[in-house]
Specification:
With 127 residues, the protein is an alpha+beta fold. The protein has a domain of 86 residues. The chain contains 2 helices and 5 strands. The strands form 2 sheets. Strands 2-3-4 form a 3-stranded antiparallel sheet. A two-stranded antiparallel sheet has the order 1-5. The longest helix has 23 residues. It is globular, with a radius of gyration of 17 Å.
Amino acid sequence: MKPKKCISVEEARNQQNEWVRTRGKDIERGEGYEDTREFWYSLDELQEYLDYVREKSAEQGVKKPGIRFYLGAYPKGENKKSYSTIFLAATKEKENKDVEDEEGQNENNYEIEPMNTITSGMPPKIY
């Protein structure tokens, strides 16, 4: 069954084009090179991390764990550009939350390590 939060291919293309037209161009001007903007994990890698978060969360008594995606950048090195990356961070329900069932009411679970090692396209692949 298709998840409720799926978007159309056209909407995905429009979002990617808007990012390239705005933020992508600004980064290229500021950094002096085209940055990566797409990242790849295998389904097995993603499932392994989801299982890990689910297991560790259960050990902690977390009832509704989640995953937050963060943008990051690798540090510049000698002959190495500071390319963008993403990392996945485990979340848990905010303790003492005032508002019921709001998706934004989750906090990072710093007791579970984030996941980062990924493959990205250079040059970036256009969606």
